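Chapter summary example.
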Amino acid sequence: MGAEDVALLMLRVTLGGTMIMHGVNHWVGGGRIEGTARWFSGLGLRHGVAQAWLSVATEIGAGVLLILGLVTPLAAAAVVSVMLVAGLLAHRTNGFFVFKDGYEYVMVLAVVAAVIGVIGPGQVSIDHAAGLVVDGWAGGAVAVGAAIALTAVLLALTWRPRAASE
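The structure predicted for these 166 residues follows.
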């Protein structure tokens, strides 16, 4: 196991742990599922409770998969998709800086996930042990392409922005 494998493990555990904590916070923190649902509804997403549970499941599930290094490009795609939705609906209009509720933080998480998709999970992963590593252009295409497709479908089916006069 080389330095690159340790670095990838560190990235996967850090990003995966961050995503798990996001999911747990949406589930039991602050306003719990009800508060998360109200927030999502306020962003123009229909079916706020379902959106909240989908977010919880996606964030926790992707986090666990990243830590394990299992179906890594798909786990990365889930993170990129969640961050795209957050960036587009909640942070884009606030500018760059996170201290102004801007898109800085979600952009960094999305890019780290995309990079993991490209580089792959490394040797310390279930993907590697099972001989299922998809990396390089293919891994990046899955991580970014699937994320864009999933985000587009989610928004097309559920996002109904409020009119400026509302």
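To summarize the output: The chain has seven helices and no strands.
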